Amino acid sequence: MTKSNPSFLTRWFRIGGGRQREEVINAEILNEFRSYLVDHTVPEWQFQYLDFDSIVSVLHNEIERKEFYKHEATRAMSGIYERNINNSEDETRAFMEDYIQIDEPNLWAMLDDEYNKINNFFSKMHSQVKDRLEELEREVQDFNEQTETVKVGRTKGLITEAFVETYKGISMLQSYCTVNHGAALELINIYEKIEDVEESDVEYANEKKREIASNTAKLNQQPFWIEMPQISEMIIKTEKLYSKTFGLRGDKVKGLLSRPAKKLSRVSIFNLGLWCGVNVALLGVLILLFVWNSEQFNSQAFFSGFPVFRGVGMLLLQIWCWGGMTWIYNRWRINYVFILQLDPPSALGPYQIFKMASFVTSIWLTCFIFFTIHTKTGFSLLAIEHEMYPVILIGILLVLAFNPFHFFYRSTRLWLGKALWTCLCSPLSNTVFVHFFLSDILTSMPKFFGEVEYIACYFSTGDWRRNEAGRCESIVSLLLPYTIMFPLWIRFWQCIRRFILTKDKEHLANAGKYFSSMSCQVFGAINRFQSYSEIWEVTRIFWAASFCVATIYVYVWDIVMDWGLGLPRNRTRFLFLRNNLVFRPFVYYLIIFLDGIGRFSWTWALTATPIPGLNKVYYPLVFAGIEIFRRSMWGIIRVENEHLKNCVKYRALREVVLPKFKKQPSDGKLQ
């Protein structure tokens, strides 16, 4: 009988050439590469990339399996190998296979499946961007034949946006190919380290080297990698076409088309920190003034002007929350600009929003502090009476909001004005997701609208000069149920319009949600039990019952329809959650819990339970703050859910509808 080949047992007793597991897959290097993948992944295409983490997990398990086999085989074979040294290699192999039950994962089969997925998606997207570029070439050719009067204004802007979106699509496809190739190459390198053998096992080592070299060559022959030069040529072609169309130098074209995100400079960060620090200091002064009890306190003057500052404070809180939402969207790579169909040039990022909010907040706090000082001490700065501080505050805000100059984010203000007008014109106007989203936010701001009514009454009637608030408070109390119903009415008709256009009964059920909320306000307007008498009339019982039904309705709708959560599924990893999650599971459970508290916060007002140590004039600010925070949490998960739905459809580019040109012999004007 022949002696067994020692190299065969060496293959069983080696673990990565004798190295430890940490050296085979270095955690620090692996995390660094993961960060690279995350930074260069197109969020909308995330499910079409090579599943790097899953395959790394398989390789990691392979290392652990080999460690376990080495330990068990060493213990089982101690003494047996010496006694059976004369056995044939086949007999020894049979013994090892029966004991260890070899079941190695086939990395190359897994990579082949990933290559097929990548190539299919690449073929689809390559065809789309190629068609886009060809269409753009035809439109640009017609555009260049027009007169100079046609080549300005909106027409030029549309052509530019079409260039930007086409260039973006080609660049994303190039990045998609590069990232997938790099991920596959990294997996092959990891496998090579795992399969590294001792120098004495030359035959097996050469076999593995040939296998790895063959599969590396196979990777480089994949269609998505072979056609990379064509993608580069399309990028160069787009740059040259843009340069020729608008007469720009080549060095400027790439920056104009790619629109790289501007990094915040140290000066910008310092300025924002400075403004925030000033606001914290001013807020501290205001809190001290509220705590301080003064014998000269003019309560009538203070409480008549306080609703003005209260309403502005609600608006500022909404702006700060929107800044926080955009920061979360950016941090977790949620493409909110695309989902909400915002205008990219006018869409503000977290820094711009926080900068704007901190600037306006400093004005609000300054006016509020001087107003409070004057009503508590009688001290007047520059002989300005306390009645003037609300006037100054509202005047500054109106100038900032409605000035026609390129100051204070003019393009953003125009876009917001158009979006609000579209919402107000429902159902006559064509609305999209951003209008639904904006209208839902408006439904959470009824107390702010009540303050707007008070401010309009306060200044139009001249009560601000007499420090009187009773008349305006009565008017606001009378109009408040109808004020609350107005944004609900807008959303109701938006849902009806969507149902008529799509015939989807889901929109009809959504309309029922807003109708139930409006019914609550109808009973509230009929009941008008502002005195909170101990006897519950029939109308008050109907009001409470309708409020309970409507609140449960909207709460369940938030979880199930808007967030895609709450329904038990057999194949989900976490109870009542989706398979695809952006945040950690506990975040969703926490938001579901907090959303329920926010939805049912009205019970506090229903029971008329006083808040210890707090004047009832501050109650609207407290409940408005709760609702604004609740709506902000709702908005984060709502856009996140829509983003994940969009990822399934791979939509990452906006459709730019270009004008159709027709050459005219006389003047070449647009048809």
Which labels suit this protein?
mainly alpha, 27 helices, globular, disordered N terminus, disordered C terminus
Give the topology, please.
Blueprint: H1 6-13, H2 21-24, H3 27-39, H4 52-77, H5 80-83, H6 89-100, H7 107-144, H8 154-194, H9 202-220, H10 223-226, H11 228-246, H12 250-258, H13 266-291, H14 299-331, H15 336-339, H16 350-377, H17 388-402, H18 410-424, H19 433-443, H20 446-460, H21 463-466, H22 470-502, H23 505-527, H24 538-562, H25 585-599, H26 602-607, H27 619-649
Helix pairs in contact: 4-8, 7-8, 7-11, 8-9, 8-11, 11-12, 13-16, 14-16, 14-20, 14-27, 16-17, 18-19, 19-22, 20-22, 22-23, 23-24, 24-25, 25-27
Number of strands: 0
| Proportion of residues in β-strands | under 5%
C-alpha end-to-end distance: 94 Å
Number of helices: 27
- What letter string, H or E per element, gives the SSE order? HHHHHHHHHHHHHHHHHHHHHHHHHHH
Class by SSE composition: mainly alpha
The largest sheet is: none
Q: Name the shape in a single word.
A: globular
| Mean pLDDT level | 79
What percentage of residues falls in helices of 4 or more residues? Answer: over 70%
Rg, Cα atoms, Å: 33 Å
Extract low-pLDDT stretches: 1-22, 98-103, 663-671
